[in-house]
Amino acid sequence: ARECPDGGSYGGDFGRKGGGKKGGGGGKGDGKKVFVGALPRNVSEASIYNCLSQFGKLANIQMKYDENGTAKGYAFAFFEDASGAEAAISASKAGGTMIDGKWIDCQAPEASDKGGGKGGGWDDWGKG
């Protein structure tokens, strides 16, 4: 697995509240949005950007924080083109997305966008 580049090459500041160079990025279901999980708690947006930008141009990164401002361990990355999102997801499945020696999980966000919340599973047990 290849370590994602990290360091000072990232020049932007996406901000904590989902700001960014181009607003919210892609819309739901357009193939440009990637769920990024299994993040180290101390990861920076710059580290995520540096890691994922090798797969395509990023429009935005939205890190998720709790009420105390502590990172929750996941984020959403918005690519300008769906091919960048697909490349990041494929690389993640092959173990090729790592930050500080830790694998990060990149996947399509459809499962998390359906508003399921707690309970229920991928096979819809308990619904009906």
Describe the protein.
- The chain has 128 residues and is α+β, with helices and mostly antiparallel strands.
- The protein is 19% helix and 23% strand.
- The protein has helices at 45-52, 82-93, 110-113; strands spanning 33-37, 58-65, 71-79, 98-99, 102-103, 105-107.
- The strands form two sheets. It has a four-stranded antiparallel beta sheet, with helices on one face. A two-stranded antiparallel sheet has the order 4-5.
- A hairpin with a 2-residue loop joins strand 4 and strand 5 (102-103).
- It is globular, with a radius of gyration of 15 Å.
- The termini are far apart.
- Mean pLDDT is 78; it is low at 7-27 and 112-122.
Concise account of the structure shown:
The protein is α+β, with helices and mostly antiparallel strands.
List the topology elements.
Layout: E1 33-37, H1 45-52, E2 58-65, E3 71-79, H2 82-93, E4 98-99, E5 102-103, E6 105-107, H3 110-113
Antiparallel strand pairs: 1-3, 1-6, 2-3, 4-5
Descriptive tags:
6 strands, 128 residues, 19% helix, 4-stranded antiparallel β-sheet
- Largest sheet data: 4 strands, antiparallel
Helix content: 10-25%
Tell me the Rg in angstroms: 15 Å
Termini separation comes to 42 Å
Q: Looking at the structure, what is the overall shape?
A: globular
**How many helices?**
3
The spatial strand order of the largest sheet comes to: 2-3-1-6
SSE-based structural type:
alpha+beta
Oligomer: single chain
N-to-C SSE string, H for helix and E for strand:
EHEEHEEEH
**Percent in strands:** 15-25%
Average pLDDT metric:
78
* Uncertain residue ranges: 7-27, 112-122
Counting DSSP E segments of at least 2 residues, the number of strands comes to 6
